[in-house]
Design goal:
CATH class of the largest domain: Alpha Beta
CATH topology of the largest domain: Spore Coat Polysaccharide Biosynthesis Protein SpsA, Chain A
Radius of gyration: 17 Å
Number of helices: 9
CATH superfamily of the largest domain: Spore Coat Polysaccharide Biosynthesis Protein SpsA, Chain A
Oligomer: single chain
Order of helices and strands: EEEHEHEHEHEHEEEEHHHEH
Shape: globular
Structural class: alpha/beta
Helix content: 25-40%
């Protein structure tokens, strides 16, 4: 199974402009831009030759190439990371490095804490030929759930939550804590900013175009749900050091505390 890890990265985040190039510092004072930490996560799982940035910004491309990453320049009109993954494949072409990939992993550029084991678990879901799209989630412990709820109470996005159908596929994703009774009645399931697709599913996604749910929540994966395309959920354990995404400037401190040391 040939795999390509694509890291979509855009400069113009509404909540955090310039986020991909913002430096993250470890306890020892060493620093690297956010996208470099995310690239290291992808390389640890798939090898540098199988990881590529997808961006429309020359600043991001220049920095990425500076630390040794491959870059595919994509159109400005891409509406989200999934569309940008498809655009990266088109830019690479069938004869370029990675162009023959059967499975495409979308590792979002603001997710530097994703461990390689999580990507491997996601890819294992494709041993089932019925799996077309897969994404991981974590059942929150009390501390993680409290962090998500506190962020929501403060008016910030503390993470995306997901609820599952009985067959293990996703019923809905939201930037609000769902379901309403969680975590007292049932655990919150925190969605991880990571996806994998078969090529046909990625092509179908682009052909569908955006839907109202996707636009209302600001969550690209809802396009699959709206179209009735199953999204397989892969339950994974929380990494020992914790897991958080850089959605807001306030998240930098949280993620820096969780960065691997040494």
């Amino acid at each position: 199974m040939k795999v390509l890890v694509v890291i979509p990265a855009r400069y113009g985040s509404h909540r955090f402009p310039g986020k991909p190039l913002h430096p993250l510092r470890r306890h020892d004072g060493s620093a690297a831009p956010l996208i470099e930490w995310t690239w290291r996560a992808g390389v640890a799982a798939a090898g540098a030759e199988n990881v590529v940035f997808a961006t429309d910004d020359e600043r991001i491309a220049r920095v990425a190439k500076g630390f040794g990453a491959r870059v595919a320049l994509t159109p400005e009109g891409c509406r989200n990371g999934t569309e940008r993954c498809a655009a990266a494949l088109a830019a690479i072409g069938p004869d370029g490095w990675g162009g023959e990939a059967e499975i495409v992993v979308n590792l979002q550029g603001d997710s530097p804490l994703v461990p390689p084991e999580m990507i491997h678990a996601l890819l294992a879901a494709f041993d089932d030929p019925a799996t077309a799209v897969a994404t991981p989630c974590i059942r929150c412990d009390e501390a993680q759930a409290r962090l998500v709820l506190d962020e929501c109470a403060a008016g910030r996005v503390g993470g995306t939550c997901v609820v599952a159908r009985g067959d293990g596929t996703a019923a809905y994703f939201s930037k609000r804590p769902i379901p309403f009774g969680a975590p007292s009645a049932m655990p919150l399931r925190l969605h991880v900013g990571l996806y994998a697709y078969r090529r046909a599913a990625l092509d179908r996604y682009v052909a569908l175009g955006p839907c109202e749910l996707e636009l209302a929540e600001g969550l690209e994966q809802l396009r699959f749900i709206h179209a009735g395309l199953p999204v397989t959920l892969v339950d994974v354990p929380a990494p020992p050091g914790g897991l958080w995404e850089v959605n807001n400037p306030e998240d930098v401190r949280v993620v820096e505390e969780m960065l691997p040391q040494g």
